[in-house]
Amino acid sequence: MFESQLSPFRGTDNCVRLVGHRGARGIMPENTILGFEWTLRMGVDALEFDVMITRDGVPVIVHDHHLNAATARGEDGIWLSEPGPAISDLTFKELQQFDVGGLNLQSDYGMRFPEQAFLNKLRVPSLDQLLDLVARPEFSHVRLMLEIKSAPSDTNPALEREKVVRAVVNSVRKFGIQPRTVLHSFDWEILQICQAQASDMPSSYLSNVPDQPEDVADHALGLGKFGGQYASAPDAVAQMGGRIWAPHHSDVTRDVVAHAKSLGLIVATWTVNEIDDICRVTKCGVDAIVTDYPARVQRELAKRNMVWRDDPSSHPADLSPAV
Hints:
Helices cover 32% and strands 14% of the residues. It is built from 13 helices and nine strands. Helix 6 crosses helix 7. The chain is globular.
């Protein structure tokens, strides 16, 4: 069961799967259709991205619950001030008024990605727009690691979780992409709803041990809430019906990866950008690497005579280096 969704994330002794984080955030504007297409054309076969819903119920691809002032400009070209408007307070039409094609390089966030292209007139896409892209014949091999986000200020969290899952699942089914989709979240209650509403799509459980204030909320929704009942994070994921465990790379060791695999889990670690970390998690035996810099991972794997896809020459759009 789930072989079509899971096999593209399962590694082997000489293969570590490559997953583009928000496209290729280090190089292209994150969570944009142009960024996603560019990432796919450089030889990346899987995308990881975040979905939440607008006030009028449209699933959109955006990471933060509020528009990020470091990535969003108004129609006047001026960067937003913090905090930006909440995604859940905007209709999809209202959201389209903002340009998300560049980074404010004076901001802390912008300084993290000095190599990212600065483009104009890119908009927050709907989930349907990305599904339409990957439904094209040249991208029929692409897999999706679709992260569903819950809004922390929801007045009725249970109802809102049901609502966002229903909206996401309906979109995926409308395009017939469920055989290529993994449902992914830090909010483990959302994943329980996914298993009930979408038993045809496997669950991927994100986890982190928070070392920054912004990590605390995600941790509290998943591993922090449920993990104490189990011997380890992989045990918790396996017992809760997960098929992929997605730990932060700092939590990856050879022993914990081996244990997770002994439970039948795939290990897809995030967000691995630095060369030393890429090398370390590869040696630990992870199945997949989620990264902002796919070309870095490609190069490091190539140095080791390893690959990131089953047949590097099988897709005419491939621009990846020969291995």
